[in-house]
Queue: 2 jobs
Job 1
Amino acid sequence: MSASPAAKSSSDLQPSAAQLETFPNAYPGRDYIVEIECPEFTSVCPRTGQPDFGTITFRYIPDKLCVELKSLKLYLQRYRNVGIFYETLVNRLLDDFVAACKPRHCEVIAEFNPRGGMTTTVSAVYVASTEEEDEQETCPECEERPSRRRRVRKR
C-alpha cells in the first residue's frame, strides 16, 4: 500500500530533474523545435506567501532524447506549494530540463500574471557546445573564445 500524499515527506514532494522521464528521439540527425506550453503553472511568492500564476513555455531542439509530457506536467505541479522567486524558478527549470534530456538547445520562458499592476517575463537559454567549439575554447593559440553568432538564413 503506497503512502497518501499527505503522509509523504516534504522532500518527496519537491520537484527534481529525476522526475522527468524521457524517450528516444526518432530523428536525432535532424534539428526540429519542440514547444511545450504550460498555461496553468502555479508557485508561491517567497516573501508574501501569495500564489503566483503564469505560463511556462519550453522550446527545445532534442538531441538523443525527448521529454515525456506527463512527467513534465507532474514535475511542474510540484511547484504549487514551493516558495520561489521567478528568476530562480526559470533557471532551475532550465537546469532540470537540460539534466534530464540533454537537448541541443533549450529556452524556458515564464510569463507571470499581473501582481501589483506589473507583469514579469523571465527567460533562460541553454546551448550545447559542439566538439569543434570545445576544441577552439581550449586552443592555446587562441587568446579569446570565439564569439557565438546566430546563423541567419538567406531567403
Job 2
Amino acid sequence: MSYVSRTLGGKERVLYLTGYHWIYWVGTVAVGAPFVAVAIGGLPYGGWDFFLLAAALIPFAYAVYYFVHGIALEVAVTTDRFVKKTGLVSITSEEVSLDKIEEVNVSESILGRIFGYGNVDVHGTGAGAIYVKMVNDPVRLRREIQSAREHVRNRGE
C-alpha cells in the first residue's frame, strides 16, 4: 500500500498518481550495467578483471542510489491536496492543499517534449514550492491539479 493511500482522509481519494519517467529508469540501468557486465562476464577473475570491477563499482553505487530514490518517489493529486513523498526508511512528504495552490509551472526541455517528461513546480500560499523533476507527463499532472482545484472551488460555492 502506498504512502498516499495510507494517509487519505475520510472522503479523500486519489485522483492521479505518477512518478519518474521511464527515461529515468533507463539512465539508472545504463549507469549500473557496466558493473553487472564485468561481474558476470569477467569470470574467471584475473588481475585486470578485479580492476574493471572496482572501477565499475562507483557508478553501480550511484545506480543503486538512484534506483532506491526512484522507487521511493510518489507524486499524487487527491481530492483535497497535492502530495510529493520521498524516502523509503526516512520519509519526507511535501503537501499543499488544493485551495492553497497559487500556481503550477511546467518546464520541458526539447527531449522532454519529445519523450513526454519534464519538471513541475507547485507554489502554495504561505508555503514554499514543491519541485518535482523528470516527472512522467508533466502537462497531464498540471491538468489534473487544475481540474481538482476547480472541483474544490465548485464544491465550496
